[in-house]
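Training component of the fellowship. As part of building independent skills, the fellow (R.M.) carried out the full modelling exercise for a liganded target. The chosen ligand was NAP. The inputs are recorded below so that the supervisory panel can assess the work.
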Amino acid sequence: MKVLITGATGLIGHQLTELLLKDNHEVNYLTTSPLKIKNTNNYNGFYWNPQESKIDDNCIHGVDAIIHLAGASISKRWTKAYKQELIESRVLSANLLFSLLKKTPNHVKHFISASGTAIYPDSYSNIYEEQSTQIDTTFLGHVVVKWEESADQFKLLNIPVTKLRTGVVFSEKGGALLEMIKPIKMYVGSGFGSGKQIQSWIHLQDIANLYYFVIQNKSEGIINAVAPNCISNQELTIAIAKHLKRPLFLPNIPQWFMKLILGEMHILLFNNKKILPKRATQLNFQFQFPTIEQALNNIIK
Ligand SMILES: NC(=O)c1ccc[n+]([C@@H]2O[C@H](COP(=O)([O-])OP(=O)(O)OC[C@H]3O[C@@H](n4cnc5c(N)ncnc54)[C@H](OP(=O)(O)O)[C@@H]3O)[C@@H](O)[C@H]2O)c1
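Fellow's submitted model of the complex:
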């Protein structure tokens, strides 16, 4: 199988690429950075610039499936300009792929897009599964709606579409967990706000495995890409401290203070959504790290 990946040079893309190459699949990837272009037998990079509608058409030759992971990072300060980039990096890039498929003979049979759990509204009472129709009305919810709409347009070309609503990815290679580990390691760790807010997360190996599973099984539609056991912010803080053998003695940091430091993006620390991977479970996907204990045992060594 030949897979075209956008954002292949990022955290998830890198893990997924390794998985595909290990099983002798071919990977083409699109990158905005010419310096990241490499060409080997089964791993070939192509340049694109979605802002300028530039794409190397050769990227699509022989491709069976597209995995769209590209997107500007949400963990940079949300200025007005950066908010636009958060949307455009996901939507203009999908639009560019759509135009390419429309004008170029191809045999792409599956379009799989990253998506986010931010689409679900904050709630202490709701448990979100894939059939939930409530939509978060904040900025991040809006980003995800636009992102999913841009993915759905591929159905117009009779290409099945899958959207992986991904929770926070935990890994030793980067991402949010490392930022949580740092202060706890330095004896200045604490939770945020009431600490009761529920966080949905997934181990990097599981999210890469899930993308691979979705291609192999041709699973369509929305899939919640979260571990089956979500956790409160306080439980997570305590679990990390236990693994690092560090005490926690500072009070939780109040929301107003984090807002002062991080601006609007502070909301990422206070999001409260209980999400279940109903479809992944129904499809019999096997999580390697279903609990936070298993994930931390693997990540914190
Ligand atoms: N990691 C998480 O916790 C998490 C959670 C939920 C959803 N997701 C989503 O899953 C996808 C992959 O996540 P990740 O953690 O692997 O992301 P990542 O490490 O930040 O990598 C994303 C890739 O997107 C490309 N990119 C960055 N800015 C871009 C722009 N302005 N225009 C076009 N491409 C751009 C970059 O590739 P090039 O430099 O090669 O162009 C980058 O390597 C993202 O869409 C992310 O929002 C991630």
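The panel noted the following from the submitted structure. The chain has nine helices and 14 strands. The CA atoms of residues 161 and 235 lie 36 Å apart.
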